[in-house]
Amino acid sequence: MKFGKRLKKQIEESLPEWRSHFLNYKELKRRVNAVSSPSPSPAAEAEFLTLLDAEIDKFNAFFLEQEEEFVIRQRELQERIQRAAEANPSPAAEAEIARIQREVVDFHGEMVLLLNYSSVNYTGLAKILKKFDKRTGGVLRLPVIAGVLQQPFFTTDLISELVRDCEAMMEAVFPPAAVSAAARDLEERQAVAAAEQSIFRNTVAALLTMQEVRSGSSTVGHFSLPPMAPLPESEWLVQSVSVQPPPSSPLIPTQ
């Protein structure tokens, strides 16, 4: 699948409020064509570079906003988990634990989506710059990508750490005994699955896109992202998207 179609599909499968923050690949491609036309406008290259800078600024603003929100949400979840662990058993305490379980799974999924956001937009930039250099005979890709590698949206160390911390929280709120009990209770499992359906589907789509974008191929080059380790349960993930209902509270693997 060509990258433009893959990106369009990924945007459609992303969270609705995130869609306008992805790379405007179609418009950048149109401007590359304008620069490389037989009679390009003198301002065509400047317009391309202006849009390119604006797109990078857009990625950074969105990524930093989400990153800050995730740090706050993780702290709040950790505090709630601690309070729930110290609370006396009661129906209210059990209801709070159930809410925390759903929120932790959603939180984990959203962070995986943000890692995918970084990967997809970086890949799009590298591809459009490669197209620009090929069409114009220029060497724009090398200096631009060197700068992109230092941009906030590409610096995912903090988010990756938050994902690992969230997985530790999952272990705390999904003890083996509780998981077994939930597996025996079909009605409860379906209720949780329904609540998580949207974020689960989006996260699965993100994981599969990351695997595809970062898989080895004959076109891999210096600017390609390193391949992901194979998803150990990728077949199960694909099946889960099409089978109703998906498993309750899936512990989705990260890269």
UniProtKB/TrEMBL annotation:
It holds the Pfam family SPX. CDD domains: SPX_AtSPX1_like. Residues 1-146 form the SPX domain. GO terms for biological process: cellular response to cold. It comes from the Eukaryota. PANTHER family: SPX DOMAIN-CONTAINING PROTEIN 3, SPX DOMAIN-CONTAINING PROTEIN 5. This is SPX domain-containing protein. It comes from Urochloa decumbens.
